[in-house]
């Protein structure tokens, strides 16, 4: 079949393309140009000029057609702008989820379908056909599993998407790339947000929106002022380092008040919760019902906590966890699992 492979210039997508070529498919490579690199507020890692050249070199080695798609406008509007606005609103955004839902598996998938092709990426996740539906499963390598970032995919997307390396451990992916003679076989991974130049998200926000940050107070649970801060965009719920105050005991961000520009800190127990709302919920298939039990992950590296989910009006869900979890940050994703299957997920709601 014809497959459009999203090639970031890293080893995973390179190996995915090589594997598909080896399997005899008609493979076309595409890299997304997501930044204007003349803007000092923008990126340097994934999808940067050197990465595009690495992807081009891999395509040349595999003898497949290759082109660069300029998605700067879509990416800026749907991912970067929301990232900035979320931080300025006291939320903790998840731009990788937004990129997957709004760009890779929307804009790029539509282009693949226009070519009569499937879309493949180097994500560590799996898709299985189960009866009349497709199931999204965690990657076989637990250390590299990326299914958390893909919870926004539904049946319409899963039927036209491939994850060629999702069943492999990372070491085998590198070995596959090496056997194929790909220059990316030993390339180091980027763990940063692709458009944040130096890993400093707060600085990025300030460069994108000069003068938008509002100084405010850092207070304890009783409202007692402990210090001042330079902007709520510098904090996330559950944060311990960089609070700029001394309390004599471990202190964590408990909540962020965007109206008063106030950051509330407290004990580990105060920064933990067993009950929260989730909005913008998407399901990989049908919603499982009005009341059900699933494993809930509140961040990528979270092992997950069993929870009871209650459907609410407006596509929202209320989550009640078996045990409190620290750092349930509004704006981040809560993803629901049944074993190793992703059932759905959404954005953790404020308040």
Summary?
This protein is of the alpha/beta class and 351 residues long. The chain contains 7 helices and 17 strands.
Describe the structure.
The protein is α/β, with parallel strands linked by helices and 351 residues long. It folds into three domains: 137 residues, HUPs (Rossmann fold, 3-Layer(aba) Sandwich), CATH 3.40.50.620; 53 residues, Adenine nucleotide alpha hydrolases-like domains (SH3 type barrels, Roll); 76 residues, Translation factors (Elongation Factor Tu (Ef-tu), domain 3, Beta Barrel). Helix content is 24%, strand content 30%. It contains seven helices and 17 strands. The protein has a six-stranded antiparallel β-barrel with strand order 12-15-14-13-16-17. A five-stranded parallel β-sheet has the order 3-2-1-4-7, with helices on both faces. A four-stranded mixed β-sheet has the order 9-8-11-10, with no helix packed on it. A hairpin with a 3-residue loop joins β14 and β15. α1 runs parallel beside α2, α1 crosses α6 and α3 packs across α7. The longest helix is centred in the N-terminal third of the chain and has 20 residues. It is globular. It starts with a strand and ends with a strand. About 2% of the residues have low confidence.
């Amino acid at each position: 079949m014809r497959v459009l492979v999203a090639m970031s210039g890293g080893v995973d997508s390179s190996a995915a393309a090589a594997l598909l070529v080896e399997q005899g498919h008609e493979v076309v490579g595409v890299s997304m140009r997501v930044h204007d690199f003349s803007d000092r507020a923008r990126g340097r890692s994934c999808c940067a000029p050197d990465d595009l050249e690495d992807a081009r070199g891999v395509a040349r080695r595999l003898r497949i057609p290759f082109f660069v798609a300029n998605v700067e406008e879509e990416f800026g509007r749907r991912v970067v702008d929301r990232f900035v606005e979320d931080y300025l609103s006291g939320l903790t955004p998840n731009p990788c989820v937004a990129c997957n839902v709004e760009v890779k598996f929307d804009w790029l998938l539509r282009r693949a379908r226009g070519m009569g092709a499937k879309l493949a990426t180097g994500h560590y996740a799996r898709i299985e056909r189960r009866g009349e539906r497709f199931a999204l499963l965690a990657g076989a390598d637990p250390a590299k599993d990326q299914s958390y970032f893909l919870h926004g995919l539904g049946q319409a997307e899963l039927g036209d998407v491939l994850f060629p390396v999702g069943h492999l451990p990372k070491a085998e992916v590198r070995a596959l790339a090496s056997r194929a003679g790909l220059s990316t076989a030993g390339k180091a991974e980027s763990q940063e947000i692709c458009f944040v130049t130096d890993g400093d998200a707060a600085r990025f926000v300030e460069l994108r929106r000069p003068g938008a940050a509002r100084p405010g107070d850092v207070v304890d649970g009783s409202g007692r002022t402990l210090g001042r801060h330079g902007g709520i965009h510098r904090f996330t719920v559950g944060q311990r380092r960089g609070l700029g105050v001394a309390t004599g005991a471990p202190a964590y961000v408990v909540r962020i008040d965007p109206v008063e520009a106030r950051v509330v800190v407290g004990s580990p127990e105060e920064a933990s919760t067993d009950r929260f709302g989730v909005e913008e919920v998407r399901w990989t298939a049908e919603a499982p019902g009005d009341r059900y039990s699933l494993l809930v992950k509140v961040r990528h590296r979270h092992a997950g906590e069993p929870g009871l989910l209650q459907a609410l009006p407006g596509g929202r869900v209320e989550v009640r966890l078996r045990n409190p979890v620290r750092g349930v940050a509004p704006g981040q994703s809560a993803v629901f699992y049944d074993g190793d299957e992703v059932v759905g997920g959404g954005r953790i709601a404020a308040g």
